[in-house]
Automatic annotation (TrEMBL):
Name of the molecule in the record: Adenylosuccinate synthetase
Pathway: Purine metabolism; AMP biosynthesis via de novo pathway; AMP from IMP: step 1/2
Record: residues binding IMP: 14-17, 39-42, 131, 145, 226, 241, 305
Annotated EC: 6.3.4.4
Compartment annotation: Cytoplasm
Function, as annotated: Plays an important role in the de novo pathway of purine nucleotide biosynthesis. Catalyzes the first committed step in the biosynthesis of AMP from IMP.
Highest rank taxon of the organism: Bacteria
Cofactor note: Binds 1 Mg(2+) ion per subunit.
Length: 433
């Protein structure tokens, strides 16, 4: 019986992780974010009311549940406090009291955001298309061992010394490499002093709390951000984010042993989307692609940018299954495929040398050289929106799902047919399998 589930995106992000985490959280004691930052945008819909979460784990709407932010997450205190205030104003109880954050999380400060923007502007057409939230520069500070971490807020002298040293590095880059305005020490310090007293009480030994929860036999959910194909090592590098978004990152990023992770739930849309630059083999530039974008409301929940849309890519999912060890799949947004006369699935690629492969290669250049090989399936005219049982799906929708399962080699555990919690079909519940 699975106790602890890791939920990860198996495509390029925005697969619907937030909806599914919120739905599964009903039966859990805690939800943990383990990587990424407020580049994530996770949408929850409960009784028609929409909530978009960026840093706070997608379990917060469940009143007695505890939410954790592990050391693998880069935290913008200003964004976090803004989100807490929004949720509180919307009537969510005791948000700050239920949020426990590792003091070892690197902080995102204004100079990270300034450099993220300056770099993208300098790159022009070659830009990554980042969310502009300072994520990349904050992770750079972490690996170069100069990050200012949340725990440093408790030591005013250490904080000031680190900030001064970091601004020397950043302002040289901003002014001399990017012709941008320098960031002033006093301005950053004023911001830190404004948020410090609200952040410090939320800092806690997240690892020990998770350990204790596991010892008590209670369930935990580990909530991934972004998606496998945006992973810093295995994604379409350099058009990726700056963290590992794989299931394996949950252990290091939350501070729990790998044996504590019982089940990996891979979330995939019934088609594919990507926001930002980089190769996308099954991208559609025709009316079918436009139809998916319109029906799927494919606009980024963080930046509002239009998401690029394309056919389902089984060869990409095969790679995601391989490197995440996906125990079960959740196929979301099946309803968005309603009414398409013929549906294509990418089963592999022809490579530039004429050979073929059935699994996505690594890195941007290799993926850019992939020409999809498609098989065509009949679509369905009926609406699947809100359907809650597999038996009630049109035969061709069932056939589409079964073909995906056969091509990828992982069982489908859940199908999502609408944005609301209840618009969900359960085939094999992750907690009982
Ligand atoms: P995340 O980043 O993986 O949590 O996904 P996002 O929240 O960024 O994007 C998913 C979008 O699809 C959100 O607007 C959800 O409300 C919506 N959504 C999720 N599941 C379904 C579904 O099954 N059908 C439809 N039509 N919309 C869905
Ligand atoms: P969720 O958790 C989709 C993309 C950006 C850009 C690249 C790098 O909602 O699925 P970054 O700001 O991280 O340095 O940008 O990664 N990206 C996402 N795309 N969903 C996300 O998160 C994303 N987070 C980052 O668009 O292409
Ligand atoms: Mg999202």
């Amino acid at each position: 019986m699975a106790k602890n589930i890791v939920v990860i995106g198996a495509q390029w992000g925005d697969e619907g992780k937030g909806k599914i985490v919120d739905w599964l959280a009903e039966e859990c004691a805690g939800v943990v974010r383990f990587q990424g930052g407020h580049n994530a945008g996770h949408t929850l819909v409960v009784n028609g009311k929409k909530t978009v979460l960026r840093l706070i784990p997608s379990g917060i709407l469940h009143e007695n549940l505890h939410c954790y932010i592990g050391s693998g997450v880069v935290v913008s205190p200003e964004a976090l406090l803004g989100e807490i205030d929004e949720l509180t104003a919307a009537g969510v109880k005791n948000v700050a009291g239920r949020l426990h954050i590792a003091p070892t999380c690197p902080m995102i400060l204004p100079y990270h955001i300034a450099l993220d923007h300056a770099r993208e502007a300098s790159k022009g057409a070659g830009k990554i298309g980042t969310t502009g939230r300072g994520i990349g520069p904050a992770y750079e500070d972490k690996v170069s061992r100069r990050a200012i971490r949340l725990g440093d807020l408790a030591d005013a002298k250490l904080l000031a010394d680190k900030l001064r040293a970091n601004l020397e590095v950043y302002n040289v880059q901003l002014q001399h490499l990017h012709d941008a305005e320098p960031v002033q020490f006093d301005d950053v310090m004023a911001k830190i002093n404004a948020f410090k007293e609200r952040i410090l009480p939320m800092l806690a030994d997240v690892s020990s709390s998770l350990h204790d929860t596991i010892q008590r036999g209670e369930r935990l959910l580990f909530e991934g951000a972004q998606g496998t194909l945006l992973d810093i090592d295995y994604g379409t590098y350099p058009f990726v984010t700056s963290s590992n978004c794989l299931a394996g990152a949950a252990s290091a990023g939350a501070g729990v042993p790998p044996q504590a992770l019982d089940y990996v739930l891979g979330i995939v849309k019934a088609y594919t989307t990507r926001v930002g630059s980089g190769p996308f083999p099954t991208e559609l530039f025709d009316d079918t692609g436009k139809g998916l974008a319109e029906r799927g409301n494919e606009f980024g929940s963080v930046t509002g940018r239009a998401r690029r849309c394309g056919w389902f890519d089984a060869a990409a999912l095969k790679r995601a299954i391989q490197i995440n060890g996906i125990s079960g799949l959740c196929i979301t947004k099946l309803d968005v495929m309603d009414g398409i006369p013929e549906i294509k699935i990418c089963t592999g690629y022809t490579l530039p040398d004429g050979s073929t492969t059935d699994i996505l290669p690594f890195g941007s250049d290799a993926v850019a050289g992939c020409t999809p090989i498609y098989e065509t399936l009949p679509g369905w005219k009926e609406s699947t929106f809100g359907v809650q049982s597999f038996d009630q799906l049109p035969e061709n929708a069932k056939g589409y799902l079964q073909r995906i399962e056969a091509l990828c080699g992982a069982p489908i555990a859940i199908v999502s047919t609408g944005p609301d919690r209840v618009e969900t079909i359960v085939l094999q519940h992750p907690f009982t399998n």
